Amino acid sequence: MNKPVWLARLLTLGAFWKPWPGWGFSLTPRAGIGPLWVFDRRAGIAIGRIGGGGLLSLGIACWLARKTPTAPASVGVAWAYLAYNVVTCVTLAWASVALGGGSLPALGASVLHGAIGAAVLGALLGRGKTPVGHDLGSGVPM
Question: Inter-axis angle of helices 104-125 and 72-98, to 10 degrees?
């Protein structure tokens, strides 16, 4: 498959996948901050909402970048999406081990983020030279 098309599809996935937990953590921050809640409730609420806003922002950026995946700004969004997935993969894998005996949901989410991160990295490293402003499916200027 054409690498820019693959990158556009991965950005579309991020556009649909990231805002939902972002809204969830913004509206119900306790769900995303776990043990921090015990130490300082107000800080936990703030961190949960900030994290939710970050996920929502990443989803919006992916949505806007998906149409022109080879544009420099879109490539920057894709690198940010890669960084998010790598950090989330490692953090969830560590949390799964730290929970003693592992946690299947955390481990499953870690594997999912790792797979998406690997796919984004592959698309970024192998992206073609499709001119900006061309439809990736037909090669016709938009």
Answer: 150
Report the predicted TM-score, pTM, of the whole model to 2 decimal places: 0.75
Between the alpha carbon of residue 84 and those of residues 1, 50, 76, 96, 135, the distances in Å are 24, 15, 12, 18, 28
Distance (Å, whole) CA 53 – CA 63:
15
Return mean pLDDT, the chain. 79
Res. 119: pLDDT tops 70: yes
pLDDT in tens, 28-42: 766 555 554 455 667
Q: How many CA atoms lie within 13 A of 64 on its CB side?
A: 9
96 sits in which H/E element: helix 72-98
Query: 10 Å Cβ neighbour count for 69?
Result: 27
